[in-house]
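Structure ticket #2291
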Amino acid sequence: MKITTIIDVVNPQSNGKLITAELRRQGHKVQVLSRKLSPNRIVQSIIKFCPEVVFGTHTHRAFSNDITRKIKNTPSHPLMVLWYVDGYGSTNPPDDKEFEKIKGLYDLMLVSVKGLVPELEEYAKKIVWSPQYFDNTFFKPTIKRTDAFDICFLGNVCPKTLNRLEFINVLRRKYKILVGGAELGKMFIGSIALASFYMQSKIAIDIPGSLYPRKELMISQRLYQAMGLGCLFISQQVPSIEQLFVPKIHLDVYEDNTIESLCSKIDYYLEHQDELKKIALVGQKEILDKHIISVRVKQYIQEIRKLL
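Resolution: structure written out below.
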């Protein structure tokens, strides 16, 4: 299949680059365009390549409705696909105003948050729930598991998510904790070091972001990465998480998203190391069996073929 992907070409671990690489591994002929190219250059490149599919592996905010209309009207009339991940949906800012601009322009929208599917049905011809994934071909550990830290957290900590900073400050007083990501503008970890990051900790934790709406199966990619790399993952409460992962079998969940509940879970598993390791191994197998990038991209292609 001839596919054009429009991606962030700078970040080596951008989802666009990872998905493009997997499409090529699966034998598809892929043209890669930077989303920062001028609209005319994007359209002219697509006309020259004549793809069957244009796959936007970025948020809709980076892709204007004018460009989308022009692409749809190129000679090959490609199928327009949007991969919408970690979004707020059509009824929550800042995404709400942006969705009105793309209404009806996409043939297929792949949505990582199951709870957003019903509210997005009018914005594309077909909406499909497609969870996030773990790229086991890219995130390969360069060190053996050391478990030097009790717990780790990887994610943004900024003025808009100060509740995360409050959690981390409490956890730092109680445990050996490894923190990665942006903390009030200060970087703690480089993107390429992600695999080694998780290899240093027994437990990976999830801390709620104060801005995110609570939607069914709104799961961060950190879950797939941490579990895929062998950590026991302790998740915040996510509606319907048991549809994908069974608590106390594949991972665990702390009640009511409070720091007290999280610490109680951490204390339990640090005192029961055999149980910690057992759940971590079962969870890792579940990720590697069902949620790696090769599995997910095959699912994308299956949905695309239904519309061609």
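Closing remark: Residues 149-290 form a domain with the Rossmann fold fold (CATH 3.40.50.2000).
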